[in-house]
Amino acid sequence: MRKTLIHALVFSSVLASCANSTSQSNTNTNADSTKLVKEYPKMGTVEVLDPAMLAIIDSTAQVEKLADGMTWAEGPVWVNDGNFLLYSDTRQNIIYQWSEANGLQEFIKPAGFEGPGTYSEEQGTNGLLINKEGYLIACDHGNRRIAKIDLKTKKKETLVDNWQGKKFNSPNDICQHPNGDYYFTDPPYGLPGRENDTETKEIAENGVYKVNAKGEATQVISNLARPNGIVISPDGKTLFVALSDGNNPFIMAYDIKEDGLLSKGRIFFDFKKQFPAESLAADGIKMDKNGNMFAAAGDGVVVINSSGKPIGRIRSTVHTANCAFATDGYLYLTSTDQLLRVKLKN
Q: Start and end of every SMP-30/Gluconolactonase/LRE-like region domain (predicted)?
């Protein structure tokens, strides 16, 4: 499939009419004419549901389209050491790299299943994170594991691939606790038969797991139908799990105990209650330093404050699976076949 980087450059003033005819975006030079400022196609709107939203994003902010040509873009993570974004295409089995300087490139291919043949429809990686040691940690659908990847050599190794000797379903999203433990969700979306898989599925539950420094997995949640996005509060005390479940479109909250196990869950947010006219459920979730949650749902991101109140929406116009904060001040969105971003205030 053709990958199209949205990078057309248009020089300011006298050169404005000389835009690259094969591109859809514009680029203008700055005042001293020494640097090119890229301009990307604009789309979407910001919906303010509470004045608190205006402390996070300008009401007139628009989403920028950076690249397209993916099949199912997922799991973005910003890499500070290099100032670039990595994200998965679960179906093309590629981890992509995007930067302002170099645009879109393939970072690892194949990212997950390495053959022979085809394993499943979504056999690549999904959720990504940069751990405390600077390694890329990947939820690997195709190999049913959590993989550890050296960013320089791109060498992969298995962090964990089983619980009690049984292979995971298809690890989906992951976060790391301040103490170094990982928590990840394990729904069946990467299995050959997905929800109806009976031949390759080894664990009955679609669980949530904790993994310690030794690579030992503990099942900490077993009663969720479709656990998906996962994030830990800034103080390290609460674990949030998004359910991509049309019947129970909740974001659940769990207190994290001293031993890393969890309290009984409670509903933090109910999409059906808050948006009854829409069929929304969260996929990926992230949380800023103030405890505001950014939940990818429907055609963008729903912003929820620390009390569980929706304060606004970033409407990208494209179904959005996940998002990631970056030190360049943008929120990056993986939206079906597109990579998008929007400028935040903090």
A: 72-336
pLDDT digits (tens, 9 = 90+) for 243-290: 999 999 999 999 999 999 999 999 999 999 999 999 999 999 999 999
Shared domain for 19 and 58, answered yes or no, is no
Same domain, 68 and 22: no
**What's the CA gap between 319 and 301, in Å, rounded?**
10
Asked whether the predicted pLDDT for residue 17 surpasses 50, the reply is no
Q: Identify whether the C-beta of residue 76 lies closer than 8 Å to the C-beta of residue 85.
A: yes
Give the number of domains in the chain.
2
63 shares a domain with 33? no
Q: What is the residue-averaged pLDDT of the chain?
A: 91
Q: What is the pLDDT of residues 161-218, one digit of tens each?
A: 999 999 999 999 999 999 999 999 999 999 998 888 888 999 999 999 999 999 999 9
Domain range for residue 10? Answer: 1-39
Q: Are residues 272 and 329 in the same domain?
A: yes
Provide the CATH number for the domain around residue 98: 2.120.10.30
Q: Whole-model pTM?
A: 0.89
Q: Are residues 28 and 172 in the same domain?
A: no
pLDDT at 115 over 50: yes
Same-domain check for residues 48 and 163: yes
Q: Say yes or no: 17 and 109 in one domain.
A: no
Are 140 and 287 members of one domain? yes
